[in-house]
Write a structure and sequence with these properties.
heterodimer; A: mainly alpha; 2 strands; about 75% helix; B: about 280 residues; mainly alpha; 15 helices; about 0% strand
Chain lengths: ~300, ~280
Amino acid sequence: MATAGARRVGLSSRLRGSVGGWLFSLPLLVAVVVFVIVPIGLVVYYSFTSYDGLSSPEWIGLDNYRFLFEGDDFRRILLNNAILICGIVLWTALPFLIAIMIFGHPRATQLRALLFIPALLPPIIAGGMFRTLLLESGPLNSTLRSIGLDALALSWLSDDKLVLVSVLLVISWATVGTGVLFYTAGLSAISRSYIEAAVIDGASWRQVVWDIYRPALRPVTRFWVLLLTVATVTALFPWIFALTKGGPGVASTTLDFEVYRTGISSGQIGLGAAVAVIGVAFIVIVLLAQYAAYRVRRAEEWTE
Amino acid sequence: MKRFGPNRGVAVTIMVLLALAIVVPLIWVFRIALKPPEQYISNPASWGGGVTLNNFSEAWTLGHLDDAILNSLTIVPLAALGATVLATLAGFALAKLDFFGKPIVWGAVLVSLMMPLAALALPIFDVALRADFINSRLGLSLIFTALFASWGAVFMYSYFRNLPNELLESAKVDGASLLRAFLTIAVPLALPAIATTFFLNVFIQWGELILSLVILPDTDKQTLTVSVAQFASKFRSTGPLQAAGILIAAAPMLLLFLFAQRWLRAETFSGGVEK
């Protein structure tokens, strides 16, 4: 990008910035248009067709959607997604509490390092590990039975009520370490003199936690919740694949997994596309709800 | 001075329980991987019994882990580099440059971040099938570069925002072109962030499943993640072989972390010291 006109100012310099801005952003823009925007358009189109990937798609209007909403399975799938989103509460509260409890303890740094190890395992690996351990006839249940705790040897992954709880807990195992790191960073950023002044004034630890730590950690929570939401939306698939393959039945099938099962595994691309569209709508609703909650909170904070 | 902090006993109990919760599953899987399969089947709970390294070599061969690791190594670092380059360029433009297309770029980035990969995998799969680039490793690299650039763009944007403009301004006054200023000033200063983006991209792309499943179904072209996902159908016994395979598959990312730690620390010290 040769330029002799560097000494020209005003319009040309703005233009150069403009051209530069476009040129720098173009690779990403093109990439997103080709691999995100166009595919979305295709998915929406396919959702109104009956299409098996081989012969041409056949327009059938809302039939795919009707089929989904009339079946019981799909209702359960939506419920599964909703429950897993609610898991975010658990995945936030746990690291929040842990970070506060261990903050300042001499062994805290080592524990935090240990807690972080699960985060280094790709979901397929961690999921595979726990599948091996939690199988009905597997090591955990066998151990519990051998010490007489038969009642605790539950069908962690094969009971259709319990399976989602197991998934939530396994994901907690993997994410708590990262959360603790974020919250600890937030705690470290609070000025020590501020805390010391409060303590000198007679504040108990509990009061400090409630009145100083809690508000100071709000931005961390917002960021962490956003991160978890995006992760739940994009990265749930490997967890389900590794832990349960959506089973038993559809008890742990998420919208993502259903797209894979209908659209890719059984080649019903039209139906799978309808599931995908609903999945996108689901995320948009969740993100809008979070944004609304954020705005409400912000308004409250100004008046607090 | 009154003692400040939570109840010591409670804190210590929690810490011990947490440590156990993390360590026990890991050690358990390790123990299972070392167990001869017949012993495991007859008593999955026992920690005693034989020790064997056979499971590792069998998992290695049956799971075609050598091919799988090579495939992932071929696909991921390249795609991570691509995504990082796209992200750094766009992040810089969004943070430092004025151009009327900004809302469009932001829109593209945000849409890209909200899309579940499964929803994209479906049409991409269909197009790939018809355009015949199923089983193309380069194709998957390209797809990864495109899909994982956006989060990096947001990350680099926020980093560049905090970079003071004076250095870039003085470069402009000295007659440097935009590209020159970017390459000789902005990039070196942003090196820690760029490195972080790169390593995080490697980690995320390495563990990606649905697109890898869809684009590379062939056994000898599979990524490591897909290979692991298919252990259940490849191995006869659930426990020890799978455990061994999982442990082998876990090694690359652990090594990456150790390497990235050391590299990132060095960079943070040397970058941007003169200001």
